[in-house]
């Protein structure tokens, strides 16, 4: 990356792309980009950090002095008009995955956080803890903000935290998992689950991609993994790497770092962590739910291996409140609390509902859920219905499609989720915003906890819902 001064990012509003742009700017590069006009959660990051961007992908908007164009899997990938124009002009182009590879290799110590679910929360927490411990890490995580801190930063070439994504580089032409480009010293893995059906045919294919990633890292001198012992697919993959190369964490009895006695105490979750050699310590976190406590335990295990005392670790993690759009408080009014959450997979939905039940045991949980991508909805329709039925009521709005899929190829809608036998009468579908507001207006009552949920633009509905309160 050293030879590039003027860098242009196509699809700069994507969370990872926005954070890359901020890191590159802090490294002294001139950075700009392009994207669609729609509002994204990263608009604030780009504007506050004076990173300019153009609306639209017309080739004449590519600056003349550009010497590198970075693209992601969005907006036609390497077939985007601006990427093609760059190649025509002889300007170097690089995929997002290649850029992350180059950045990771330039740091003395790098830590990759991977997993089908929970990797953004875990990577953000690790970055936050290292900041509190005065390590001054550089990092790129999958959210625009956590604890009022931007989701990307550059603070020298000592320590780098990177969220490692198993999605493909540029589907359908290049299905190479993005994290296969990375070569970190340490890996934290939260779980392995079937997701991204446009890239993976089944769970075995996902497991294989993690297996390849682990095998490549295990060959590095001093490499070490931190793996969740509660996740069966992950533990099956772990059998293929040397046992002394990984530490397990979780609620399972045979965990190297075992979680015990978790409970909710006011605005915190409290739990005990017991090391296999006998030592045990109490911790608090501002996060809720067993999955989040497991994520916190992974960071504790990692920091303990680095030599930090339990007291220092305890102080570094306690006030982490989560990333933007992760159980994010929106408003509390007239006895009703609204939260926003990024959950877009059945496992994530179930985890968020479970955490909400734990935090608010005597209150009704209501979801406004927006399915993300037609391919995922087709593959996991009944699983969505089952997880959504765990709330007191789930209202499903129309599917948010990906720019990478052709909508005409699919014959499914939100009503297919609500009509599934798995919905158990607790899931209904609406076709419009007006219909949604009518349903909420007649159903909401004091004491309810309402989530807007999904990976699309469902969070924007808060402006319509708040007046109902």
Would you write up a description of this structure?
The structure is a single chain. This protein is an alpha/beta fold and 469 residues long. It has 3 domains: 6-94, Rossmann fold (3-Layer(aba) Sandwich); 107-317, UDP-N-acetylmuramoyl-L-alanine:D-glutamate ligase (3-Layer(aba) Sandwich), CATH 3.40.1190; 328-468, Protein-Tyrosine Phosphatase, Chain A. Helices cover 31% and strands 26% of the residues. It has helices at 15-26, 43-48, 81-89, 96-105, 119-132, 203-218, 232-238, 290-305, 310-317, 346-359, 374-379, 381-388, 414-418, 433-443, 462-465; strands at 6-10, 30-35, 53-55, 68-71, 92-95, 109-114, 138-146, 149-153, 159-163, 168-170, 174-177, 186-189, 224-228, 246-250, 257-265, 268-275, 280-285, 328-333, 336-341, 365-369, 393-396, 427-429, 449-453. The strands form 4 sheets. Strands 8-7-9-6-12-13-14-15-16-17 form a 10-stranded mixed β-sheet, with helices on both faces. It has a 6-stranded mixed β-sheet with strand order 18-19-23-20-21-22. Helix 7 links the parallel strand 13 and strand 14. Helix 5 packs across helix 8 (290-305), helix 6 (203-218) crosses helix 7 (232-238) and helix 10 runs parallel beside helix 12. It is globular. It starts with 5 loop residues before the first strand and ends with a helix. The mean pLDDT is 94.
């Amino acid at each position: 990356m050293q030879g590039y001064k003027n860098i242009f990012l196509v699809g700069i509003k994507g969370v990872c792309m926005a954070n890359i742009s901020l890191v590159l700017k802090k490294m002294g590069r001139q950075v700009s980009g392009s994207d669609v006009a729609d509002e994204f959660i990263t608009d604030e990051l780009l504007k506050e950090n004076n990173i300019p961007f153009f609306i639209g992908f017309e080739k004449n908007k590519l600056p003349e002095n550009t010497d590198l164009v970075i693209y992601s899997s969005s907006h036609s990938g390497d077939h985007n008009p601006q990427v093609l124009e760059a190649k025509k002009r002889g300007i170097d182009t690089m995929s997002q995955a290649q850029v992350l590879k180059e950045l990771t290799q330039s740091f003395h110590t790098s830590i990759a956080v991977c997993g089908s679910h929970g990797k953004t929360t875990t990577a953000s927490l690790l970055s936050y803890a290292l900041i509190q411990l005065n390590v001054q890490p550089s990092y790129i995580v999958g959210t625009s903000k956590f604890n009022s801190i931007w989701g990307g930063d550059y603070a020298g070439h000592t320590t780098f935290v990177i969220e490692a994504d198993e999605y493909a580089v540029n589907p359908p032409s290049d299905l190479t998992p993005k994290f296969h480009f990375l070569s970190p010293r340490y890996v934290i893995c939260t779980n392995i689950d079937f997701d991204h059906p446009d890239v993976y045919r089944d769970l075995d294919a996902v497991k294989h991609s993690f297996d390849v990633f682990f095998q490549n890292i295990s060959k590095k001198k001093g490499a070490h993994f931190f793996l969740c012992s509660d996740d069966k697919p992950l533990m099956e993959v772990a059998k293929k790497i040397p046992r002394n190369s990984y530490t397990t964490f979780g609620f399972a009895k045979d965990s190297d770092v075992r979680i015990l006695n978790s409970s909710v105490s006011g605005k915190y979750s409290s739990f005990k962590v017991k090391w296999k050699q006998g030592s045990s310590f109490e911790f608090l976190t501002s996060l809720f739910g067993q999955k989040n406590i497991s994520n916190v335990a992974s960071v504790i295990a990692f920091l303990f291996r680095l030599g930090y005392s339990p007291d220092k670790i305890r102080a570094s993690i306690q006030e982490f409140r989560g990333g933007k759009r992760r159980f994010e408080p929106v408003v509390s009014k007239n006895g009703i609390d609204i939260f926003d959450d990024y959950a877009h997979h059945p496992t994530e939905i179930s985890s968020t509902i479970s955490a909400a039940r734990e935090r608010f045991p005597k209150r009704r949980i209501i979801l406004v859920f927006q399915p993300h991508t037609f391919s995922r909805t087709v593959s996991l329709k009944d699983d969505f219905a089952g997880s959504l039925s765990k709330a007191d009521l789930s209202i499903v709005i129309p599917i948010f499609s990906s720019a990478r899929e052709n909508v005409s190829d699919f014959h499914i809608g939100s009503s297919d989720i609500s009509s599934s036998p798995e919905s158990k009468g607790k899931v209904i579908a609406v076709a419009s915003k007006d219909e949604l507001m009518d349903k909420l207006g007649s159903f909401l009552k004091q004491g309810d906890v309402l989530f807007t949920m999904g990976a699309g633009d469902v969070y924007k509905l808060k402006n319509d819902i708040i007046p109902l309160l």
